[in-house]
Structure formats: C-alpha cells, structure tokens
C-alpha cells in the first residue's frame, strides 16, 4: 500500500500583476468571491493580512466561525495560514499561496494544501477531499477575478 499524499498543490499563470492577485488573497473579505471549495461565506472588512502572527476570522458556508493563524508572509509573494476553531490552537493543516512575477508577463500562482501535521481526526475526511482539482478551481476563479475585474 502506498503512502497517502497529504500535500497537494496546483499552479497556473495569471495575466495580472502580482500585487492585484495578492490583494485578492490577503484581504479575507475578498476570498469568498473566488473560493473554489465553496466553503467560505464571509469575512469582516478590515482584516487585511500584513504580517505573520495575525489572526483573521472567516464564517464558513456551514455557518461556523473559523480563525486563521498567519504563519508565513511576504508582501506580494507569499501567504499561508493554519485554520482553527475559535479560541483553539490550529489543527495542523495549512493553506499556502505563492506568487512569482514572470519576466514574460503575468504571475505564476501556486496554491498548496498541506495536512501532513493535521491532528484533528474529525477533519481527515474533509482533508482527503481537498485535491489538486479543488485547488485548481480556486486558482481559476481567482484568475477570472484578477484578469477581468478592475474592481473587487
């Protein structure tokens, strides 16, 4: 039996400036508009991520509230967070976005979901259902938003 893959990633080139794309990712209030998992319902305005250590709150489509602990951050190029139930430590899974400006124009966007450190057994089934295809859906929606909208 083979080892289960617990890190999945997807990439695509978006014909937009990295700053435009990053703003859509780094502002939680903008995330539900392009979420390919159809899991995010809303986030309050004013939570724009600017540093490691920040925590932003998101309401899920299930109605529950989720805290997201920012663990990696470089303005315009990298952002990653670990979700948790409100007031709890992160369960160990991580969502990461990496952006790389291309000399030929556009931005290479890589979206990664890493559940190799997930400790909450109740989340394993949902983690397994997050595939390259679901990550690609988020990138595709983000791409459409960044390339074709001048307003968020």
Explain what the structure shows.
- With 152 residues, this protein is of the alpha+beta class.
- It has a single domain, classed as 2-Layer Sandwich (Alpha-D-Glucose-1,6-Bisphosphate, Chain A, domain 4).
- The chain is built from 3 helices and 7 strands.
- The protein has helices at 18-26, 124-128, 132-148, and strands spanning 7-14, 40-42, 55-60, 65-74, 78-85, 94-101, 107-114.
- Strands 1-7-6-5-4-3-2 form a 7-stranded antiparallel beta sheet, with helices on one face.
- The longest helix is centred in the last third of the chain and has 17 residues, at 132-148.
- The mean pLDDT is 92.
Q: Look up the CATH topology.
A: Alpha-D-Glucose-1,6-Bisphosphate, Chain A, domain 4
**Morphology:** globular
Report the portion of residues in β strands. 25-35%
- Helix vs. strand class: alpha+beta
What order do the helices and strands follow? EHEEEEEEHH
Low-pLDDT ranges: none
In which order are the strands of the major sheet placed?
1-7-6-5-4-3-2
Q: Give me the number of helical elements.
A: 3
CATH architecture: 2-Layer Sandwich
Compact overview of the structure:
The chain is of the alpha+beta class and 152 residues long. Helix content is 20%, strand content 34%.
């Amino acid at each position: 039996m083979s080892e289960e893959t617990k890190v999945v990633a997807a990439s695509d080139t978006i014909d937009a400036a990295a700053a435009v794309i990053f703003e859509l990712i780094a502002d939680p209030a903008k995330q539900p508009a392009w979420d390919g998992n159809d899991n995010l319902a809303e986030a309050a305005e004013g939570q724009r991520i600017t540093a490691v250590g920040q925590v932003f709150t998101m309401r899920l489509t299930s109605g529950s509230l989720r805290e997201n602990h920012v663990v990696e951050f470089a303005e315009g190029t990298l952002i990653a967070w670990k979700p948790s139930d409100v007031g709890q430590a992160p369960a160990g899974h991580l969502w990461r976005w990496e952006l790389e400006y291309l000399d030929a124009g556009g931005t290479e966007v890589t979206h990664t979901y890493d559940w190799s450190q997930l400790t909450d057994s109740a989340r394993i089934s949902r983690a397994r259902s997050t595939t390259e295809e679901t990550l690609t859906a988020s990138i595709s929606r983000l791409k459409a938003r960044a390339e074709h909208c001048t307003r968020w």
